[in-house]
Design brief:
Helices cover 18% and strands 41% of the residues. It is an alpha+beta fold and 166 residues long.
Amino acid sequence: MTTMSPTRADFREAMAHLPAAVNILTTDGSGGRCGITVSAVCSVTDSPPTVLVCVNRSSATHDLFSANSRVCLNVLGGEHEELALHFSGATKVPMEERFSWDIWEPDETVPVLRDALVSIVGTIRDRRPTGSHTVMFVETERINIRQGGDSLVYFNRRFHRLDSAA
């Protein structure tokens, strides 16, 4: 095990104090079906509508996203903490089982979470390797927005429910 430099340790601690929305990035296609919990996501531009998503290159799913190119960014609601844990790999539930649950929209080309706060379906148009991750730029093709509901955020290495009324 390599020792972490003080700067890297400080950076990781600083990022733990940056609240982030919790999402499940999904894909399906010739590369296979998979999904992972991600929090490194942000808007890039509205012309064309594009978001970026960072995926660790050491993830077993990394190459599947690139191979398929089509993805769905499912923004999780406050009630989805357990689902976030499943897709982070923390619960060891097999990938195939995660997609067998009756929570996915039928007849979609990529898995779309039925009750996500927001679902953004799109195509990865560009990839940039940066350090341990690949930054994937996803051009949006379709957006579903659920009205109401709380948000699930990750802050200080824990999940928190952000009340929409607050």
